[in-house]
Amino acid sequence: MDAIVMAGGFGQRLGMGEKPCVELLGKPLITYVIDNLRASKNIDRVSEIMIQERYKGEVQVIRTFGGNYVGDMIHAVETSNTAGPVMIIMSDLPLVNPDLIDSVIEKYREEGKPALSVYVPINVCRGTGTRPDTVFNKDGKLIVPAGVNILDSSQIRKEQEDFNLILDNPRLAINVNTVKDLQRRKDLLQCSN
């Protein structure tokens, strides 16, 4: 399976430049995601919308128009010449590790639907100190999109039936939107090393 890292966003709440380039323990945020995708046993190729020098041809860089997330995602999928399912992941998820990536892909294959969207319960976000921008009600349970999806690239311009994978995994709730978030992630990464 191929993966596309969505690396747009100016990081206005962070106030430190483009969010994917903001450093966390000496590495840009996006490199955590790319390195974890590359270490996954189920990811064959990684495309993203920014870094080139660090990966010297190992990661395909795709420039988009920056108009909106969905338009950029469609452009990235079509430009990457991906065939079959593709993982779309946000660049500000530094703790989403290879095992978690592989388990999401395995669940996708098991469910057999064209798409899969990953969510975390809102209480998991609260437990990590993350304040979500978007919350959905799924069968009376409040859930938050995790920024990890799998789509059928051949149907990228169509709405796809998807499986809602709800995981109680704090690694999926730990993204970076503010300076406070960045400090919390730094503390978590230092503790886990």
TrEMBL record:
Transmembrane segments: none annotated. The keyword Transferase applies. The keyword Glycoprotein does not apply. This is Nucleotidyltransferase. Residues 3-116 form the MobA-like NTP transferase domain. It comes from Methanosarcina mazei Tuc01. GO terms for molecular function: nucleotidyltransferase activity. It comes from the Archaea.
